[in-house]
Hints:
The chain is mainly alpha-helical.
Amino acid sequence: MPPNETPTQNPYAQAAGAYDQHAQTHTPDQREVEGRVLLKSARMMKELQDNWDDADRDLIEATLKHNRQIWMMFYDTALENPEGDRPNDLRSNIINLANFIFKRETEIIATPTKEKFNVLININQEVAAGLMIKTAPPPPVE
């Protein structure tokens, strides 16, 4: 930047500042994104239940695969980040919940019934609700 040009006069700095402001205002946080993904999977499973008579094995497996991929992300993150920002109890709960979901999905594939989806839908909705709760920002450091 030339010495006589202030940041407010520089169009590149203005554009970068506008982009930063827009991104901070309009980009959802990671927890909200994860919550929305879980809700989408819950809706997919609920739609499958509601249209059970039209569901075939491929649709059931595709719906369960979508849910499993989401939970694999949670599972892998919990395993790979032992010193991360999650307490050990939370990491353990995520791993145990994911294992339950994987087992339930195996049961559904073995003998599909629409009622078996209830617990998966409920878990996704409950976890999503917890993720989407807005947390207060940390207090300023003095």
